[in-house]
């Protein structure tokens, strides 16, 4: 089976690959000195692997898999807090299924459920609210995680709980924000990124303006991209053009979904409910200033952290795990000493193995044919 | 969870609460449509439109061609099935809401 079989428009894909190769040549990029582009979002990582884009593109182009998979950056300490809340017999703990298998220092939510905690997977925070209405004698807690893509949904759910006067619903916020995360990547010593494939759905909410500093201060081009393989290829081609021109700008390849200004209503709800935390822990990356949000005082009664006074302890990542180096692109997943050697999608040690959008899981699943995997 | 899934808005179930029924490849689900409501226009105008749905919230209106292309992509990535599974899992809660 050829890589092109998966393409809706193989001819367009092929021609983009040719034009990308021309631009790489013109830039003088080589396998030893490649142009390095970071895809920020795990959705792009998954698409790049699934469609084998790295195998059809010249080795003079290197993809760095960024930290934009919220499941993959869940720190152990926060999972421990979730488990502690879930083990309270008054509590029905609700979560997206994606978070169930992320290891904590004692156990994952999946193990806690097996041990008898009332943990339920839901599709939406609205399901958690429905559970709260139906179980007025229980405390229903929703585990809110994700970037600005899912943040409006939990904010709007808190506003709905308030409007309806639902007293037994609360939110445990592990939401993180994209801009401080990108700053942390850009400030990582020794990390060179020539341009960014920007997240599609985060941008649908926040718009393009917040990214301007990347072009203005850091002089890097940034293209918000769709998730089709041709979207990714087109974005790569656009980025190479801006690099050649020495003209870093913020561009939108995904205009069919992403408006310049984002979604006003979603932004207003996030602003109403959440405020910055001074610091926030990330798996593999340590603490990043102002990268997370917590619930504002006005909505304190919906804040599970205050209602259950959890430990909030910072727990170090397992010694042998090299998730941090993989997250910042210093190591390829298969270069981690645990990769396939104690850490696999069935028994993840690091969270990058848990979600199909994590670089390690994607590499594990599709990596056989990948260049460099040998 | 992050990629969302396109669905077609088939009915407005509760205009006051801005809730609608969305058909996501055959599965019906109550979805919050306040982020895609067009100010000054009746919610009924949304009926028949396609929206990108993230964890129960319509976050962007898209045209049909885009919706179908995105669905095909999500099928390939295995994400469409995961979304449908999550919706099926909570169908009883959702019906409770709609009733
Ligand atoms: S292989 Fe496992 S431990 Fe190593 S970086 Fe990947 S997720 Fe982390």
3D structure, described in words:
- The complex is a heterodimer of chains A (374) and B (99).
- Helix content of chain A is 37%, strand content 17%.
- Chain A is α/β, with parallel strands linked by helices.
- In chain A, helix 11 links the parallel strand 8 and strand 9.
- In chain A, helix 1 (10-27) runs parallel beside helix 11 (229-245), helix 2 packs parallel to helix 15 and helix 7 crosses helix 12 (264-273).
- The longest helix of chain A has 18 residues, at 10-27.
- The radius of gyration of chain A is 21 Å and the shape is globular.
- The two termini of chain A are 20 Å apart.
- Chain B is an alpha+beta fold.
- Chain B has a single domain (5-94), classed as SH3 type barrels (Roll).
- Chain B has helices at 64-77, 79-89, 91-98; strands at 5-14, 19-24, 27-32, 50-54, 57-62.
- A 5-stranded antiparallel β-sheet of chain B has the order 3-2-1-4-5.
- The mean pLDDT of chain B is 90.
- Chains A and B meet through helix 2, helix 6, helix 7 and helix 9 of A and strand 3, strand 5, helix 1, helix 2 and helix 3 of B.
- Residues 321-323, 326, 333, 336, 338-339, 343, 349-350, 352-353, 360 of chain A line the site of iron/sulfur cluster (SF4).
């Amino acid at each position: 089976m050829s890589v092109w079989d998966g393409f809706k428009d193989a001819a367009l894909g092929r021609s983009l690959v040719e034009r990308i190769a021309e631009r790489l040549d013109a830039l003088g990029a080589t396998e030893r000195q490649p142009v390095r582009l970071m895809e920020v979002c795990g959705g792009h990582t998954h698409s790049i692997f699934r469609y084998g884009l790295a195998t059809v593109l010249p080795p003079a182009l290197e993809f760095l898999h960024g930290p934009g998979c919220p499941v993959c950056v869940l720190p152990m300490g926060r999972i421990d807090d979730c488990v502690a809340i879930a083990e309270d017999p008054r509590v029905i703990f609700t979560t997206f299924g994606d978070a169930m298998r992320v290891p904590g220092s004692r156990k994952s939510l999946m193990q806690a459920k097996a041990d008898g905690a009332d943990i339920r997977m839901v599709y939406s925070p609205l399901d958690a609210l429905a559970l709260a209405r139906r179980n007025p004698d229980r405390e229903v807690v929703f585990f809110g995680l994700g970037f600005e893509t899912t943040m409006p949904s939990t904010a709007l759910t808190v506003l709905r709980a308030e409007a309806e006067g639902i007293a037994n619903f609360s939110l445990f916020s592990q939401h993180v924000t994209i801009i401080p995360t990108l700053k942390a990547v850009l400030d990582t010593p020794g990390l060179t990124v020539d341009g960014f494939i920007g997240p599609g759905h985060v941008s649908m909410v926040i718009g393009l303006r917040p990214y301007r500093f990347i072009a203005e201060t850091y002089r890097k081009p940034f293209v918000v991209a769709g998730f089709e393989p041709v979207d990714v290829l087109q974005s790569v081609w656009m980025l190479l053009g801006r690099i050649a021109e020495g003209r870093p700008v913020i561009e939108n390849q995904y205009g069919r979904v992403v408006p310049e200004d984002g979604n006003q209503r979603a932004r207003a709800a996030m602003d109403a409910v959440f405020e910055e935390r001074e610091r926030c822990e990330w798996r593999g990356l340590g603490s990043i200033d102002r990268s997370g949000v917590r619930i504002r005082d006005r909505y304190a009664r919906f804040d599970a952290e205050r209602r259950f006074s959890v430990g909030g302890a910072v727990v170090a990542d397992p010694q042998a795990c090299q998730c941090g180096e993989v997250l910042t692109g210093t190591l390829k997943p298969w270069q981690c000493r645990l990769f396939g050697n104690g850490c696999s999608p069935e028994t993840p040690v690091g969270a990058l193995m848990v979600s199909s959008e994590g670089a390690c899981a994607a590499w594990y699943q599709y990596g056989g044919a990948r260049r460099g995997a040998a | 969870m992050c990629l969302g899934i396109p669905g077609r808005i088939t009915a407005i179930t509760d205009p006051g609460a801005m809730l609608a029924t969305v058909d996501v490849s055959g599965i019906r689900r109550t979805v919050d449509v306040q982020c895609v409501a067009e100010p000054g226009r009746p919610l009924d105008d949304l009926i028949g439109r396609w929206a990108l749905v993230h964890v129960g919230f319509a976050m962007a209106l898209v045209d049909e061609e885009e919706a179908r292309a995105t669905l095909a992509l999500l099928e390939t990535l295995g994400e469409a099935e995961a979304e449908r599974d999550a919706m099926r899992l909570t169908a009883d809660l959702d019906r409770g809401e709609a009733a």
